[in-house]
Design brief:
Helix content is 64%, strand content 0%. It is built from 4 helices and no strands. The longest helix is centred in the middle third of the chain and has 31 residues. It is elongated.
């Protein structure tokens, strides 16, 4: 081999002799372990705020309000339908837009 190439190889190998083991900052492992434990204990909904009691109360009350509104509206429609008597064939046909004309 050429002497300049050998010198380069020797200098590269000698630079490896001066290397020291890398050290981590103080309490690195403890902080890393705490971060991993925190990540593992998080639920899927934590970032959206679904687990907060205020959000749950508002959502539940809104749901109950909507249900009560729909029930009262349905009850009023049933009372109107039963008070008007038996629906006739003509009202059924007009409701579903059934007429005698045939469109081809």
């Amino acid at each position: 081999m050429e002497p300049s190439l050998e010198n380069k190889i020797d200098s590269a190998l000698k630079s490896l002799d001066d290397l020291q083991r890398a050290s981590a900052p103080n309490f690195f492992y403890t902080r890393l372990q705490a971060r991993l434990d925190k990540k593992q204990n998080e639920t899927a909904f934590d970032f959206l705020g679904f687990v907060k009691p205020a959000f749950l109360i508002v959502t539940l009350s809104l749901f109950l309000l909507m249900n009560s509104f729909m029930i009262t509206k349905l009850y009023k429609q049933k009372t109107v339908a039963t008070s008007s008597g038996k629906p006739s064939l003509q009202s059924f046909a007009s409701e579903y837009d059934l007429n005698n004309s045939i469109n081809y």
